[in-house]
Amino acid sequence: MRNLFRRLWHGLFGVYATAVFLAMSLLTLALVAVAPGLKTRRRIARRGAASVFRLTGTRLLVRGLSHIPAEPCIIVANHASYLDGPILTAALPPRFGFVIKREMTRVPLAHFLLRRIGSEFVERKDAHKSAADARRILQKARAQESLAFFPEGTFTAEPGLRRFHNGAFAAAARGQVPVVPVVIRGSRSMLPASRAIPRPGRLEVIVRPALQPSAAATVTDLLDEARRSILTDLDEPDLTRAS
Fold it and tell me: From residue 10, how far is each of 6, 82, 144, 164 by CA, in Å?
């Protein structure tokens, strides 16, 4: 009987949370569409994302924001769920542009919203387009713009930290900007890849100390150091060691 009530509660929560997400997304989209200035649009998106968690009673605990430098930097976070984008939008200061897989451009409303808040889209499968995207991201890093990446590129139902793509770390090394590892916990449990609607849960974002690129360090060195930092607080295995 207890399991039945639990499944019923999870189902009701999932339907309600999905309705709240859709309503807040449409409201945010409408406001972002008419708001002048990138900073204003990013603040609106941040408040919209935070409202989703607040209205669903989902606790989002954020620790270590003081580790984010005042100067431009690059955030790299683990990726476990579709919730991760809204989580970082709600948790981070609204000065970060997100670097997102180009597949999202096929979702018209999401693409419009993401483009209006200064997101960058990168190709993962076409080598020529991927190289052009990488050059564009490098130019932004050299221009000292703050960017946020999910260097795993995608996520699966399997717990663990997948192999990183090196784009974020190449941009940091070329632009000589700090890399800030960020750990997202709870999103895989709340909305795993195998589920269409979320279930109740608690979310946590842990901002780890910034990594300063040096002239002597290689891109691989920076990537490996960021992985070690994230794994310290992730409570999930390193899947590169299992492979």
Answer: 6, 18, 44, 33
**Fold of the domain built from segment(s) 2-242:** Glycerol-3-phosphate (1)-acyltransferase (3.40.1130)
Query: What is the value of pTM for the model shown?
Result: 0.91
Neighbours of 219 (CB within 10 A): 17
β 120-122/147-149 pair status: unpaired
**pLDDT value for 122:** 83
pLDDT means per 10 residues in the chain (243 residues)? 84 96 97 96 97 97 96 95 96 93 84 92 65 72 82 91 91 89 97 93 97 83 96 95 62
The residues, any chain, with a CB within 8 Å of residue 98's CB and separated by 6 or more, are 85, 88, 89, 114, 117, 119, 120, 147, 148, 149
Q: What are phi and psi of 83, to 5 degrees?
A: -75, -15
